[in-house]
Write a structure and sequence with these properties.
By secondary structure, the protein is an alpha+beta fold. It has one domain. The chain contains 3 helices and 4 strands, in the order βαββααβ. It has a 4-stranded antiparallel beta sheet, with no helix packed on it. The two termini are 30 Å apart.
Length: 109
């Protein structure tokens, strides 16, 4: 049974983790997770990818050089604010739970 860890992470930890579900406790390095992450992540991710593909098609039609690079830049520029908003939502409306046991320390043995 997973134990609750209320607000154990900072929002900046969520953003630097790459995804809001890759959070580690700063003290014991235990992997933490939010409930319902698949549902919460799937919809915004699908919207960002769909918007990026539409922008890519427009870039090709307009004649922008290197539309693939343009696509990558657009995905990154779109995903960062979405991820920040997700992190803020998760922090305010969800509870962190322990997802794994802390790694063993190699000190002393």
């Amino acid at each position: 049974m997973a134990s609750s860890v209320p607000h154990a992470g900072r929002t900046s930890a969520c953003v630097t983790a790459g995804l809001p579900n890759r959070i580690r406790c700063p003290h014991c390095r235990t992997l933490l997770r939010y409930d319902g992450m698949i549902t919460i992540m799937a919809l915004p991710f699908a919207i960002v990818i769909l918007a990026a593909l539409i922008v890519h098609e427009v870039a090709v039609d307009v004649g922008i050089a290197w539309p693939g690079l343009f696509l990558v830049v657009m995905v990154l520029l779109t995903w960062v604010p979405v991820e920040l908003l997700l992190a803020l939502y998760l922090r305010d409306h969800r509870t962190l739970h322990r997802a794994s046991t802390p790694p063993r320390s190699s000190k002393g043995t």
